[in-house]
Amino acid sequence: MLVLNCSTKLLILEKMLKSHFPESLKVYGAVMNMNRGNPFQKEVVVDSWPDFKAVITRRQKEAETDNLDHYTNAYAVFYKDVTAYQRLLEEHDVINWDQVFQIQGLQSELCDVSNAVANSKQLGIKLTSFKAVQFSPHSALPDTNSLKGSSPRLTYLSVADADLLNRTWSRGGNEQCLRYIAKLISCFPSVCVRDDKGNPVSWSLTDQFATMCHGYTLPEHRRKGYSQLVALTLARKLQSRGFPCQGNVLDDNVASISLLKNVRAEFLPCRFHRLILTPAAFSG
Questions:
Q1: More reliable by pLDDT, 56 or 141
Q2: Residue 4, C-beta contacts closer than 8 angstroms, at least 6 positions apart
Q3: Is the pLDDT of residue 144 over 70?
Q4: Distance (Å, rounded) from C-alpha 222 to C-alpha 218?
Q5: Alpha carbon of 85 to those of 17, 111, 114, 193: distances in Å?
Q6: Minimal CA–CA distance to 77: which of 53, 94, 54, 98?
Q7: Which parts of the sequence belong to the Glycine N-acyltransferase N-terminal domain (predicted)?
């Protein structure tokens, strides 16, 4: 196991991961953020270098942590050889098994392998799988016709909006998520529509893996074209900074799937998998 601390090696890794799209997108997004200031205090673990067969991004050991915060305690995985990934999981000191955390990636075998190792350590496991999507430069352009006059207006989120986002996110409603959202807003691109009082009515933001997330419009403001406008504007913002425009959507989220089809987003051949793992000490 090797930790890549050298900035030159991390830049080389970023270029190498591009040749393994789309399966490497989550790790690629994390490495891009590491190479641009590393606001989430991440590091990279590989089985070998430069001919790696498995790579994991994780929180730096010295970073302040909350053992209940699976949002921040997040690992992204890409492998060329699933056996190499399993060996990394089993190796001492690669994963912190004593906290609640998540593992995510775009390769199906990671579910079985992660499950097997986690079960051997008696951790609880919650698996969620999504359709994976990517916006291309050929996606539809943002249509600002829904914004007439001085309000509503298209802008970006502020940390003061974190409480609203925490209350409206299906994954939220807790202290850890509130802190996580505030950190995302302060570190990464976001877009929102605000009403005449300056309150957000529709928004989307970017996570630590350069993935567009928590796209949401308040119920009373739906069917006005805001969701599409926000999604396309954020996609363009990410593209202008050189980031891939990726997202995830649940299979039963009919409205979001319809929106993504309307804007000509590409549904990827792989699926996005997220495992949340909980040690017995924190299950209850």
A1: 56
A2: 10, 13, 43, 44, 45, 46, 49
A3: no
A4: 7
A5: 16, 11, 9, 42
A6: 54
A7: 1-189
92 band by pLDDT with thresholds 50, 70 and 90: confident
Residue 230 backbone dihedrals phi, psi, to 5 degrees = -65, -45
Q: What digits encode the pLDDT tens for the residues 163-187?
A: 999 999 999 999 999 999 999 999 9
Q: Which long-range contacts (C-beta less than 8 Å, at least 24 apart) are formed by 57-61?
A: 57/27, 57/30, 57/31, 58/94, 58/95
Rounded to whole angstroms, the Cα distance separating 197 from 243 reads 32
**Average pLDDT in the 112-139 region?**
91
**Average pLDDT for the chain:** 93
Structure tokens at 10: 């991390």
The average pLDDT across 22-34 equals: 97
- Amino acid making up residue 5: N
User: What percent of the chain stands above pLDDT 70?
Assistant: 94
Rounded to an integer, the average pLDDT of 101-124 is 95
Cβ partners under 8 Å of residue 116, min gap 6: 86
In angstroms, what CA-CA distances link 240 with 20, 169, 185, 186?
A: 22, 27, 18, 19
* 95 within 8 A of 65, measured Cβ to Cβ: no
The pLDDT tens digits for 211-236 are 999 999 999 999 998 999 999 999 99
The pair phi, psi for residue 141, each rounded to 5°, is -85, 150
The single-letter DSSP state of residue 207 is -
Alpha-carbon span 59 to 38, nearest angstrom:
10
What Å distances lie between residue 82 and 24, 53, 232, CA to CA?
Answer: 13, 8, 35
> Residue 66, exposed/middle/buried by CB under 10 A (0-12, 13-18, 19+)?
middle
Q: Where are the alpha helices (DSSP H) in 35-155?
A: 82-90, 109-120
